[in-house]
Amino acid sequence: MEQLLLTIGRNMFAIFGVMALAGAALMVASRSAIHSVLAFLFAMLCVAGCFLALEAEFLGMAQILVYAGGIVVLFLFVVMLVEMSRKKESEVFQQQSRYAVVAVLVGAAVFAGVFRKTIFGLASTQPLVLRPELAQGLDVARQNAQAVSRSLFADYLLPFEILSVILLVALVGAVILAKTERV
Amino acid sequence: MVSLNAVLLVSFLLFSIGIVGVLIRRNALVILMCVELMLNAANLNFIAFARHSGSASGQAFALLVMGFAAAEVAVGLALVVALYRKRDTVQVDDINLLKG
After folding, report:
1. Angle at B91 between CA A175 and CA A90, to 5 degrees
2. Which residues of A touch B77 (CB under 8 A)?
3. ipTM associated with this complex
4. Which CATH number is correct for B4-93, 1.10.287.3510, 3.40.50.1000, 1.10.3720.10, 1.20.1250.20?
């Protein structure tokens, strides 16, 4: 058992990569749009797992928040609005909660086994390199996310600010595009 | 330890699946999702190279790309909704207003 968990932990990237590819293929292949969205969610979560396996913890968590929390929900809303108006809900969602609960429990158990020993250890076996003046007072091997933030706000401050303006413009543009003619 | 080539292979396959989806699917929503998939493949590459070279820049850029993806989805979905209001369809084959 211990050996099995160790093997899983060592091959985390391969496992998540294969699952992400399977999810992506399912997304392209499935006929109904709502199944596509669910497969897309699965693929995005697996890509987040890939990020974690590559020791980019902050990005993995941001991926889950942005994609699973924001983008997929947005897609689901639009699919409900556009595709579902002609169908009954029970035709699209099949009730298989029992199997879903079992699958989630098995997945959580495997994760707990794999991360039990490593979760409080070093963040990174191969620490990131920062410029000496940025790396002051920072143990990079333990605080990977902090290294990324120092790099982002020192070297890439201008792109970051431009991105915030772009997000604002996209927000206004989306409201104007989606609003009905009569206000 | 994950080899660089393995990550590049996965990201290449993800990108290819995204391109195939954009080319063969006719539903505008699924096409948008495939574009997102391609952005994710690019992100995976950024992170793989950041890890390979040990520099934090790749991860910082991947974060920026994630923000761009969110903005793109907001505008794209607003376009799809506006289109649906006007033409009552999201199939890109039925949208041929500019066809001569």
Report:
1. 85
2. 74-75, 78, 174, 178
3. 0.92
4. 1.10.287.3510
